[in-house]
Amino acid sequence: MATFLYKLGRLAFRRRHFVALIWVALLTLAGVGAASAPPAGNSSFSIPGTEAQKAFDLLEQRFPGASADGATARVVFKAPSGEKMTDAGNKATVEKTVGDLADGSEVASVADPYTGNAVSKDGTIAYASVKYDVSGMELEESTKDALEDAAQQARDAGLTVEVGGDALQAVPETGATEVIGIAVAAVVLVITFGSLVAAGLPLLTALIGVGIGVSTITALASALELGSTTSILAMMIGLAVGIDYALFIVSRYRAELAEGREREEAAGRAVGTAGSAVVFAGLTVVIALVGLAVVNIPMLTKMGVAAAGTVAIAVLIALTMIPALLGYAGRRVKPAGAKGRLLGRARKSGEPKPAETGGQPRANLGTRWASFVVRRPLAVLLLGVVGLGAAAVPAASLELGLPDDGSQPTSTTQRRAYDLLSEGFGPGFNGPLMVVVDAKGSDAPKDAFHDVAGTIEGLDGVVAVTPPAPNKGGDTATITVIPDSKPSSVQTEDLVHAIRDAGGDIEAKTGAETLVTGSTAMNIDVSEKLNDALVPYLVLVVGLAFLLLIVVFRSILVPLKAALGFLLSVMAALGAVVAVFQWGWLSGLMGVEETGPVMSMMPIFMVGVVFGLAMDYEVFLVTRMREAFVHGEKPHQAVVTGFKHGARVVTAAAVIMMAVFAGFIGSSESMVKMIGFGLAIAVFFDAFVVRMAIVPAVLALLGKRAWWLPKWLDRALPNVDVEGEGLRTADERGADPDEDRELVRA
């Protein structure tokens, strides 16, 4: 592996014009494709294999033309104090508004509050339901403007009017904090390299890689039904890993220059050594993201594959475009540690290294920290584990749910409409259950419909049950059930299970199948499906990465320690997410206007992404330790050497990744905001507590046992040579690695 990448790095350095042209052409092609692609519609949210999805599919089949996936709006009216919605003037205003709404070109139907029994018992609140032919993301701006204008006219007439539903759904915005995150990354790079040119290379290549990835996603969004969140998450992860991967190669390049190598040779060796770590680190991220397909939720699978594609592009750019740009930069990229007029001058042959001049170089912070850890490994280990355990405590109170208008900020009209409906019709009105009765196998469909409705009315927690609404064929009917509790409550979940349990007895009695769907039932099914998939997903992803790390480190205990450390960091990160987004701690600082359940997809998505990123730092840091160990250093000294060469760069990479992820906390999309915070805090825990403290402490306690591998397994495993041993061997023999074909083992 190292020899192949060494050759690739030297080739890219020499043929830099050709390499740069290829990447610019790919960026241009992706940009043209994105600009000419049709606008993306609303991404379909389906959960195959669940009852809620089965009922939804049945509705589309038995109620053709009903626009089951069309946008909806609820225009909620509240009478002025002391008045009622049934008063003549208020009624006339509402009827005029309903008439205006019905004139829209994309409107499928509008339900009048007075004919549809949509006035509250006290007469103060009413609502009109609007159904559209297309989804919320596909609605024309003129249609949304007409909806808002109609609501404003009713406000001008003296009514309080708010609009709920997904008709006003907008593309999420990331906010200015994303730019701040990139600016922080730039500052960290300048501090790390002490050079604007060297700092600019990782930023430039990361932006090109993200540009290609996001543009490709945009170009394919309509054909593959990719939502706007998919491109935002791909951008988030692609930026973070793109900067980090380039950072490691540029840093190794400067170190090679400091050793006195020519620039082309230094580029080749940087790609051969640090590039090998980049390949395996990127591979673990890709495995974790693509592994999300195990959950069998198409939206989550698409998000994972799209983000994995962006990571793969980041790896390829780091391996090829970075050495090409280093060729363009020439002497403007300085050797590590060079100062004054000697900046940019490689050490000539025979010139003594700094360590050979008789002076003892001052140990850097990484060396001093590692030396402290190996002297006090048990204390550091206990402190790190206890600290992460304390941060993970809130995760025991984790509540999962999907966002609805109740999770919107109180400043939005959607949230105010939600609150008005709860006030007038009860908390369960915002989460009605749709019961679909399939009586195709029943001898008396109408009797079956009424049996289902009567059974549901007798269940605890039910406020109202609408009469069955059959289709034209008379073999299927829908029944709307209003719970007495809010959509995200445990009581509503219990009611869904009670209806489904009762459906078994009804089917045995009448031959009619009863299915429960709707957003609330869909939420419950998603949570259960994700919970069921978590263990298989962990086994798959952690298992594959464990095998991969055995090949990389040629050890059993080091990969095991890496996996256990990941579990600590991800649990601590989930605890932090619960504390902020569910409990409300520091919510104002994070811009969280409304607390509530954590996104159902958050735990498994965090597990996938954080595992991949955690293995990044494991590979980058521990490969330097193994490199020192296999070259003859004692285990404790190898840990210190690994920190001497890698701690500064890993620290910079972690700060950059945290800054990029934290930049997305300003997003208007609650899921993006939550993932941005979760990933930022997870990187902090994993990089600075697990990898910088727990890992060296465990390695110090294990000593030589950390690198133990059964002889039979050692013979069976391929030699991927991540540490660049083949390059060192060729160097010692005086051979040119570019011509030493015997060293190519992978």
Write up what this structure looks like.
- The protein is an alpha+beta fold and 746 residues long.
- The protein has three domains: 2-36 and 173-337 and 364-400 and 524-743, no CATH class; 72-165, 2-Layer Sandwich (Alpha-Beta Plaits); 422-523, Alpha-Beta Plaits.
- It is built from 22 helices and eleven strands.
- It has helices spanning 2-14, 16-36, 51-62, 88-102, 141-156, 177-193, 196-224, 228-258, 263-290, 298-329, 365-375, 377-392, 413-425, 445-457, 490-510, 519-553, 557-582, 602-630, 635-662, 670-702, 711-716, 725-733; strands at 72-78, 107-111, 125-132, 160-165, 400-401, 433-438, 462-465, 469-470, 476-483, 513-517, 598-599.
- The strands form three sheets. Strands 6, 7, 8, 9 and 10 form a five-stranded antiparallel β-sheet that branches.
- Helix 9 packs antiparallel against helix 18 (602-630), helix 17 packs antiparallel against helix 18 (602-630) and helix 17 (557-582) packs antiparallel against helix 20 (670-702).
- It is elongated.
- Low-pLDDT stretches are 339-360, 739-746
The helix tally amounts to: 22
Number of domains: 3
> What is the helical fraction, as a range of percent?
55-70%
Mean pLDDT: 82
